[in-house]
Structures are given as structure tokens and as C-alpha cells.
Amino acid sequence: MQLSICDFAEKYAASGISRFHMPGHKGVKLHGLEALDLTEIKGADFLFEADGIIAESERLTAEAFGSRLSCYSAEGSSLSIKAALCIVRQYLGRDIAVASPRNCHRAFLNGCVLLDIDPVWIYPDSERSLLCECAVSPEAVERCLDERHIDAVYITSPDYIGNIAAVKEIADICRSKGAFLIVDNAHGAYLKFAGEGLHPLELGADIVCDSAHKTLPVYTGGAYLHISKTAPEGFDELAKPAMALFGSTSPSYLIMQSLDKCAEILHGELPAMIRACCERTALVKELMRQRGIPDISKEPAKITVAAEKIGYDGDVLAEMLRGAMIECEYSDPGAVVLMCSPFNTERDFARLEDFLSSLELRPPLTGDGALLSELRPEKKMSIRQAVFSAAHRISADEAVGRTAARTAMSCQPSVAIVMAGERITPEIVKILKRYGISETDVI
Ligand SMILES: Cc1ncc(COP(=O)(O)O)c(C=O)c1O
What is the CATH class of 270-358? Predict the structure, then answer.
């Protein structure tokens, strides 16, 4: 039987062999994990041309997720997302038209810049106020596909605050109109094991990017690029070269061992642990419901407190949580996001419940009324053209009427307020300031 990546690294570390190869630490303990930190030596396989222990581990992962092909990334979904766009472009062998809602992560925008894709924006039907809450309906996707030729639809589901898109309906629409569906499922790798029909691979997506590290027990940076069983077979041979086009030639073997270990336990105890975590999270959600604390996350292992609705600025509430020894994933003026996993302890959950039980509820804050989804910024040039233009930085106030040279985002969760190439309006400046951005780059 073939060694796993973990077994190979452990055997190599224990062998006492003299390492006349990279990395320079030679396995000597400085930080702690050096002994297991390898490079692509004989027997260790090559990530982007895998046919040994990495290929076998990826096969185990594909089996667990029900994909036709799963490729490892040691550089997050940020790499998988660029590769996904590249696969569609190379498969069609020409420029492609890609439609996406504006709540896309910067990795998508970077992929568009690098691959010369000028995205078509799909705006939400309803008025929403949170930056990353830019949910898209199947109807909006259909309208977009009816209006013009689109080769691929790109959606983010779940989004940063726990909205889950109607992936199946969107996938059906894409199929009927001849467009591929790529899903940024960076936040939802665990969904495959949380219940039936929750992961985009089960709902008709062609390519899915999962950040294993966000919700599974994987070191930061570990991610997947999944090709679904229903995607064109031609995608498979393009996947690894597309990852190689953007990826480092020195992928972290520590991250790959972590992905390997995760593949092993996904075939063992982890799915039951994930379901138990979702059940435990449901108890917290129920407590919130009883206390009237609004949770706007639709995800089973994510809680998003709509802070403003109970009278708190989200950043202030996050500070109060910190005081109670709880660190959240993200906060902004409107919301606080808490991510749960099977590796949260009962003490963690009890602390959170104590905090929520004693939280004083106040009259809702009105916010500053800036509705992000009402913005339809005027496009002056393509994102690529703008990004490669000479630019200078000026204060946000001075930027009104100018063209953004770089996409301005809230630093977390990396969702755009104004895209590169768009005209900056007073409304945009208001939102930039709301997210703490006082300067911006203009052409
Ligand atoms: C929605 C979304 N997509 C993609 C990414 C990028 O994933 P990674 O950090 O694994 O590169 C993130 C990261 O936060 C994200 O929130």
C-alpha cells in the first residue's frame, strides 16, 4: 500500500538522513515543525504533477467530497479561484464573459485582472445594507443571462456573513443557458458533511473552490479546487496546469500533510463530529432566538449577530466579546460573525452562551443609511486597464468624481466597495469612510 503524505514525512523525519536539499532549516527544530517540513524530494511527489502520494491523497479527498477531481492548494482558495477561471478560459480557448454578484472576494478580481476578464455585475434585487451581504437571486442570474452571452457565472456561497445562495436553481439556469457555474465555497467545505444537499458539488456547480482551512481542521492556506462529476471532462487535464500557472513552485508540505490528515478523518470520525458541531451551534442559535438576538446566518456552523438591530455597533460588540475571552471571526458596524467547528470545546460554547444570556438588548441603531446594493457605479474602463494604469493616492473626500485605480475593499472580508475602473461618487466615499478607508488610489 502507498504511504500517505503524513507517513512519508514522518518516516523521512525519523530516518536521520542528511538533508542536502531545501528548506534551509534542514529539519532542525527552531519553530517546532521543521522536521516534517519537506520539499519535493524523491518519493514526496509534485503538487502540480502529482502521480504518487499527493495524487492518492487528492483521490481520497475527491471520494469524500463526491467530486470527479479534487486538487490541493497550499495557497488557499485564492489560488483555486484563479485556476477555476483559467480552466473555463482555456477550455473555451478564447476570451470569456463571466457574470458575478459584487460580493466576490478579491481573489476573483485578481483572477479577472490577470486573465483579462471584464466581469459583468449581477446586482441584488433587494435593498441590503451590509457590505458583504449582496445576495443574488436565481431571477437576477436569469435576467443577466437573458440580456447577454455569458460563459460562466461565478457566485460566492456561503458568503462571509452566512448567506447561502439558491445554488441548485442558479445551476439549473446556468445549464439551460449554456453557462458554467463556478462557486466560491471558501466558507463551506464542511457543508458536504453537515447534511444532504448543502455542498455546491451536490447542487450542480461545475467547479467549486473550498478553503479547507476555514472550516475543517487544516493549517491556514490548505484549500481545494473541485471539478464536479457533471463538468466537461476536458476540465480535468486543465486543472493542475491552471493551478501551476498561479501557484508557487514550493508548496508547503506541512499544509499538504494537514490536508492529507483531514482526508483520512473525513473517511472516519470527522463527518459525525461536524454534524454534532452543527447541533451544538443550533442550541446557541435557539438561545439567541429566545432572547431576541437576531442571527442572520443561514449556515449551520456560523452565527452572525445583527449587532445594530440590538443597539450595538458590531465593532463595539466584538470588543465586549473579547472582554469575555471570545474572539470573533469578523466584525463591522453592522454585524459580528462567529465561526464554530467540531474543535470548539464545550467551554467555548458555554462562554458564548453566558455572554449572550447576559447581553443587554437596546433599541436598534439606525445606521447611516448607506445601502451598498443601491450603488450602480459608472464604469469608466475595465478592471485590468485601471489596475495597470499609473495611479496616486488621495484622500477619500478628494476622490469624488475620479476613477478608482485599485479596487477599494474593506480589508476583511475583502469585498469591494468600488471596483478599479469605476467612478467614485459621494455615496461611495460615505461607505469607504464607514469601513475606515480614508485614502484611495485614483487614476
Ligand atoms: C468568500 C471568500 N472567498 C475566497 C477567499 C480566499 O480564500 P483563502 O483565504 O483560502 O485564499 C476568502 C477568504 O477569506 C473568502 O472569504
Answer: alpha beta
- The atom number, within ligand 1, closest to the CA of 221 reads 10
pLDDT tens digits, residue range 160-189?
899 999 999 999 999 999 999 999 999 999
- Dist CA 302 CA 234 (whole Å): 36
77 lines ligand 1 (CB under 6 A): yes
pTM exceeds 0.70: yes
What is the C-alpha separation between 204 and 14, in angstroms, rounded? 45
Say if ligand 1 is within 6 A of residue 210 CB: no
Residue 327 backbone dihedrals phi, psi, to 5 degrees:
-105, 125
If you average pLDDT over residues 197-202, what whole number do you get? 98
Residue to substitute in 73, 100, 105 for testing ligand 1 pocket (most ligand atoms within 8 angstroms of CB) = 105
Residue count (the chain): 443
> What CATH number does the domain located at 375-442 have?
3.90.100.10
Q: Which has the closest alpha carbon to 73: 266, 270, 231, 214?
A: 214
Q: Grid coordinates standing for 123?
A: 446586482
For domain 68-262, which CATH number applies: 3.40.50.1220, 3.90.1530.10, 3.40.640.10, 3.40.710.10? 3.40.640.10
Ligand 1 centroid to Cα of residue 105, in Å, is 6
